[in-house]
Structure formats: C-alpha cells, structure tokens
Amino acid sequence: MAAKLIIAPEAQQDVDGAYSWYEDRRFGLGEEFLVCVDACIEAICRMPELYAKVHEEYRRALVRRFPYAIFYEYVGGGVTVYSIFHTSRNPKKWRSRLV
C-alpha cells in the first residue's frame, strides 16, 4: 500500500520554478522534468524506507535524468516532501527546511 503524501508549499515552489526554467530552455523539457519528479515521488510512496537517511530522520531520493533530489520524511505511514532541490545548490538551504 502506498504511503499518504504531503508536499510542502516550498517543495511545490521548487518544482514550479524548475519547470519554468526547463520549459524556457526547450519546449517540452519542463514536462519531461515533471514526469521524472512524479515517477520519483511515486517510488518514494511505494517504498519510503528504500532511500537512505541523510539528515536525522530525513531521506533523499534522486530524480532520474535531472540533477534534483527530493528530501522527505517518512513517519506514521505518511511521506512529507519538504524540498525538491538542485543537487549543486548549497546544502544549507535544504537543511534549513528540515529543522
């Protein structure tokens, strides 16, 4: 059974910004990005404990084809996504959302 999913507003803003950036580069690339993010989130919900803990109880899953990581927490049968971050950005930024 898939875990219940909650996406923080900041994580949604991350996705929206990245979608716009990719779509501005090439028509349709933003859609490809969304498909990959959705597939990663679906995998997280199916097997939330599969991905390694990277900070306290928070886990990280890497998005296929794009340099993005999804940071989430799995507690009580629910997955909360806090950040969808470009992997070259300063790690202090995503960690600040987790505390």
The SSE order reads EHHEEEEH
| Apparent shape | globular
Measured distance between first and last alpha carbons? 28 Å
Mean pLDDT: 92
Helix content: 40-55%
Full CATH superfamily name:
RelE-like
Strand order of the largest sheet: 1-5-4-3-2
Alpha-beta classification: alpha+beta
The gyration radius over C-alpha positions equals: 13 Å
Q: Strand fraction band?
A: 25-35%
Number of strands: 5
Continuous helix count: 3
Task: Characterise the protein shown here.
With 99 residues, this protein is α+β, with helices and mostly antiparallel strands. It has a single domain, classed as RelE-like (YaeB-like fold), CATH 3.30.2310.20. Helices cover 43% and strands 29% of the residues. It is built from three helices and five strands. A five-stranded mixed β-sheet has the order 1-5-4-3-2. Helix 1 packs antiparallel against helix 2. The radius of gyration is 13 Å and the shape is globular. The mean pLDDT is 92.
